[in-house]
């Protein structure tokens, strides 16, 4: 096919725009990564902007990992993320599935009551009292149980289940499947995209957990990574903190790399599910 | 004989068991702090400060840092979580909890407080420790960081270009003009920044303080000793005119308005001629090493506070009134007698030489030693003592503490402490909840930037003040300040 001048111009325009988008996305990431590896003096010499470092140092990473607290925090975060996400998915699925079935009596009322909690939350102190009363203060459960089900995720999952063909459920029941069997053998295998998507939402929330840890954890050995990173940065940022001897800039960038790397690494592998999952329930009929 | 020995052994066993049964668990005291300390040990076993306090006093004194302090502390107090002591970040916090009768009045502990005051050099009548005439707060930090500010200059440039360091604001202007024409970092580019400062307010105060002016809402005393405000300072326009002149002639770092690390980056990059900033941001050995790596012959020194050039006194930066403490600790009203006694036991220990040095520099002969002149000298293990300042529950005497901690900057520290400051009293005024001080401050800040940058004519300054009265109820704020400072016998 002969391409016209206009077609080529249009393609050039599209490529130009894509290249621009690529650059404005990539440059900040490169800047953050490069800065975390660049010696502070080198950074200053080069006017504070380095995309490709000529000198490399691991000082900021060494400083971050020097006292072992961060690795301990990372381990707590991994535990909370893995255990939390699994429990989140189980609890959300077990709640969303029955609510998505039309034959369940009172499902509309229960759904409305659940949505009410999204609009009007209990507030910090009542939630604190509940967490305390359950006896999970200063345990990793304090970072998992209060947000076991996120209403938004529940609604998305419920919408996905509602979109599954009713005939499948009927066929399974005719074959003698129980409701739990239908969920396990029919619904779950078809729900991989939504599970991955909702799982990613939950995992990122756990990975970034900060305020729950601030409120419910005082045991230094149970602090998650984000709290420890925040402390390091806060200490390095104080304008006249007499004790501070760590350059804040490289430390800040190293912290960003350290905190986001696992999520960035995992994301490409589940991206295909993520696209499908985010569209779940978006088109009906 | 065997029977006797057996009997004696049996008695000894019973007695030792009885003694063991009587051995009491140490009293646990939970003390929440907002002091963030890097390197704080993760467990109590390896926390030698905790262990030493336990050993010397028999009290398990746990200091716990809370992130997002106000929210986290409030949740714990209201959520009836166990606590015995807590840091109050502001006078407002103390008032909030004291008014709900949640804090222990310290009226009965005057003798203990006196020991602490004498050891740490506090006044005995710091108003911000009181609520309704009753003392609830134990002073924990003097507003000493105000005295960290210095006017730093490039001594290498002065020497090389034979520049005379300024002593007045007009001389500073001429000095900066001369610097503008010099390539101070010798990189062949026109990137010299003659003047920079750590935040707009504190940076420009090097220029405005000699006129008795601060470019923001600060409570001061006027010439007659009556409560007033820096915004109403008689020489405000004169001071603003100077700042505008510096800005208009391109002598000021644009980063001065951001107040973030970019200011320090410029100083480390040696682009800067004059930097009005805390010594701790550039004169620590670590930072000296950084700027020397950029330009080995660069040398930052400091000059004295400037005068107005018309016979006025030299003044630089603002400092809170001495009878003020930024932080203070309070005791839970619900503490038992035993717990209260345990708290004072620990505080009394902090008043001993050993206790004080423990929370200043760590353990003697491990983290520090006395040298031949009986001066504190740090050992190679002093890095392990970076967290001990979290235990400075009774504060510290910075003149002693910093000199030992940062020997490389001891002259700068002493100079900063001796530099005359413009005394402000905001720390002694508790803003009532029904007055929106944050809105007033935000508007003042916005308009001050416009005045500095020439985006608003100086002739409009009176109109600006009228706006404050009309739209922000400025008179109410002035009345609040006057009433409270008079009640504290600070203002006439």
Describe the structure.
The complex is a heterodimer of chains A (about 280) and B (about 500). Chain A is an all-alpha fold and about 280 residues long. Chain A has 13 helices and no strands. In chain A, helix 4 packs across helix 7 and helix 4 packs across helix 12. The longest helix of chain A has about 35 residues. Chain A is flat and about 75 Å long. Chain B folds into two domains: about 190 residues, Periplasmic binding protein-like II (D-Maltodextrin-Binding Protein, domain 2, 3-Layer(aba) Sandwich); about 210 residues, D-Maltodextrin-Binding Protein, domain 2 (3-Layer(aba) Sandwich). In chain B, about 40% of the residues lie in helices and about 15% in strands. Chain B has about 500 residues and is an alpha/beta fold. Chain B starts with a helix and ends in a 5-residue tail after the last helix. Chain B is globular and about 100 Å long. In chain B, a hairpin with a 5-residue loop joins strand 9 and strand 10. In chain B, helix 16 packs antiparallel against helix 17.
